[in-house]
Amino acid sequence: MKKPSIVFFDIDGTLYTRDMTLPASTKAAIQMLQDNGTYVAIATGRAPFMFEPLRRELNITTFVSFNGSYVVADGEVIEKHPLETEKIETLQLAAGVNNHPMVFLDHEQAVANTANHAHVAESLGDLKMPYPPVNGSFYKQKDIYQALLFCGQEEEDEYKRTHYVFDYVRWHRRALDVLPKGGSKAEGLRAVTHHLGYTMEDAAAFGDALNDREMLAEAGIGIAMGNALDEVKETADIVTAPVNEDGIEKGLERIGLL
Questions:
Q1: pLDDT of residue 110
Q2: CB 185 within 8 A of CB 214
């Protein structure tokens, strides 16, 4: 097993516990990595504005966000893949017929197309995010890197079948990420490693959710958290302890970085 030179961390369920806290052992482990010269980066489905405080706390300036659609290395934007405006409009019209609200995100903010919808409030509330401002034409005014579509699991196949120009990843029982076709965290990892002079074999990646599968499979070492979904564990090389049981620290020890 090659010792990694760069390590990517998912946020929710990986760095953060279920109640959105950063374990002390995780913060200490990342500080040790940095002190030892290992490059540390984030790979998340979140928008950049949603984890800016975490980046400051951990002194991280490189990240894959929006599941690979907006990538920054050492503070410099190196990849951007916005959704096509016309295709967003077509999807929004279909979602409106089904009474399924949407939220649109650029790198600076989230904006909803529907006010006071319970599914939006529940899903974003679980991320400790406030209900977004409402502007039905926001997606026409800004580059949108990810949309959120709020529907049940039994309803998502209709969108996958009729609006297949996008990829969809479920992250909540009420919500799907809407992504550019073919986008993934793995693509973002490739962009970062190439830009910084590493290879994918030099990289380790930690994750727990469905949107982590590609990067765990393609990184040199993929580490699934003990709290990860079974489908995610199957793609990983190693399964560590859950996030709230020092899973990051123990996983880094297993791959020889601590």
A1: 96
A2: yes
Interval 176-193: pLDDT, tens:
999 898 889 999 999 999
Supply the range of the domain harboring residue 235: 6-80+183-254
Bridge-based pairing state of the strands 221-224 and 203-207? parallel
Q: Is the pLDDT of residue 102 over 80?
A: yes
Q: Which of residues 180, 213, 228 is at a domain's end? A: 180
Helix (H, G, I), strand (E, B), or coil: what is residue 83?
coil
Structural domains of the chain, count: 2
Neighbouring-strand partners of residue 111: 104
160 within some domain:
yes
- Of the residues 10, 12, 202, 208, only one is catalytic, namely 10
pLDDT at site 17: 96
Beta-carbon contacts of 43 under 8 Å, excluding residues fewer than 6 positions away, are 8, 9, 10, 63, 64, 185, 188, 189, 205, 207, 212, 215
What distances in angstroms separate CA 131 from CA 15, 104, 126, 127, 179, one per listed residue? 24, 12, 11, 11, 21
The 10s digit of each residue's pLDDT in 198-231 is 999 999 999 999 899 999 999 999 999 999 999 9
3-state secondary structure of 126: helix
At residue 258, what is the residue type?
L
Is residue 248 scored above 90 in pLDDT?
yes
Q: Token pair for residue 24?
A: 């002390």
User: Could you tell me how many residues make up the chain?
Assistant: 258
d(CA 39, CA 65): 17
246 is catalytic: no
Handedness of CA 246, 248, 252, 258 (dihedral sign): negative
In-domain check, residue 1:
no
The token duo for 99 is 């009474």
Instruction: Quote the percentage of the chain above a pLDDT of 90.
Output: 93
